[in-house]
Amino acid sequence: MGIKKAARARPRAQAQGPVSFDAAGNVGGVMASIPPGLLAIAGGRDALPTDEAARVLSRTAKTLRSWASQGSGPIQPLRINGRLAWRVADLAKLLNGDQ
User: Fold this and answer.
1) Among 31, 40, 51, 70, whose Cα sits 20 to 30 Å from the Cα of 10?
2) Domains of the chain
């Protein structure tokens, strides 16, 4: 008989529901101060795939995937059908120095 390894439970980011923002950067009626470059890249989306989020943060996609798997980064992604998605609001906070 083989020895079974205990499965490690990974903490997963909980979806907080959709975040909507308009072209002025208002999130849910509150000014979120989304940088214009991020606003242009997001194009009205609530979350970005890893490669786009990495470009916004001037990091590599590998770095963001490492943050997600180790839980060590300043922000954590959503997992959508096994893929990582990075919240635009979290990216904006990070870029503005709020996190």
Assistant:
1) 51
2) 26-95 (1.10.1660)
